[in-house]
Amino acid sequence: MLYIGIDLGGTGIKAGVVNENGEIIAKASCPTGVERGYGPVIEDMAKLCIKAAEQAGVSESKYLKMVYGNGTDRAAVEDYYKKEA
């Protein structure tokens, strides 16, 4: 099984795919750009998850939905995912 982790920082966003042993399989990053507001930042988080998953060889058919738990409304990530489908 593979897992995706996200590090949302003030200057950068990082996403990584690890296996059940904690070994890094793939990673992606971009600047946070906090001046844009939370919507574009959350969209970048979703894009980085997709990018890291693709680099790890995980096709979109292997995952159904992205969710996150940072205390904000999930609609932004779910709306982005629907636009890309």
Structure, described:
The chain has 85 residues and is an alpha+beta fold. It has a single domain (2-84), classed as ATPase, nucleotide binding domain (Nucleotidyltransferase, domain 5, 2-Layer Sandwich). The protein is built from 2 helices and 3 strands; from the N terminus they run βββαα. A 3-stranded antiparallel sheet has the order 1-2-3, covered by helices on one side. Helix 1 (38-55) crosses helix 2. It starts with a strand and ends with a helix.
Question: How many domains, as an integer?
Answer: 1
Sheet with the most strands?
Answer: 3 strands, antiparallel
* CATH homologous superfamily identity: ATPase, nucleotide binding domain
Number of strands: 3
Estimate percent helicity.
25-40%
Using the alpha-carbon principal axes, give the shape.
Answer: elongated
Strand order of the largest sheet: 1-2-3
**CATH topology group:** Nucleotidyltransferase, domain 5
Strand content: 25-35%
- What is the top-level CATH class? Alpha Beta
Indicate the radius of gyration in whole angstroms: 13 Å
What is the element string, with H for helices and E for strands?
Answer: EEEHH
Which ranges are low-confidence, i.e. pLDDT below 50, for 5 or more consecutive residues? none
* DSSP summary: helix tally: 2
Mean pLDDT: 78
Structural class: alpha+beta
